[in-house]
Amino acid sequence: MSMNELIENFMATGGHHEPTTTELLAWLKGEMKAGNLENLAGILPRLVRPDLDYTLAIAIHRLFKRVRQGRPASAPNVKIAVLGSITTPQIVDLLDLYLQAGVASHGEP
């Protein structure tokens, strides 16, 4: 299946069809191993949706972090202070995911 078909199927099911999601994540990880960071930087923001389940959101966030580490900084470094307790890391990861997706989808300044 082509990249566009994988993304279209994922978007159509909202990430709630496990075989589609599994296939897409495997493809994304393959792209990561191949070093196609620019390609992933364009694709990942398209996958972030408000209705992602936590596990899938964190999987996409991990890929976002790896892409961000492998590319020169092109967007402003935005910081948000979060006060919390034991669940703070999970909230911070979700905030970071949606922030990065928003920055990437709206282009560079």
Summarize the structure.
By secondary structure, the protein is mainly α. It is 68% helix and 0% strand.
User: What does the oligomeric state look like here?
Assistant: single chain
**Helix content range:** 55-70%
Poorly predicted runs: none
How far apart are the termini? 34 Å
Query: How large is the share of residues in beta strands?
Result: under 5%
Number of strands: 0
Series of H and E elements: HHHHH
Shape: globular
Query: How many distinct folded domains?
Result: 1
Describe the structure.
The chain starts with a helix and ends with a helix. It contains five helices and no strands. α1 runs antiparallel to α2. It is mostly helical.
Break the fold down into its secondary structure elements and pairings.
Elements: H1 3-13, H2 18-34, H3 37-47, H4 54-70, H5 88-105
Helix pairs in contact: 1-2, 2-4, 3-4, 3-5, 4-5
Q: Could you list some keywords that capture this structure?
A:
109 residues; 0% strand; mainly alpha
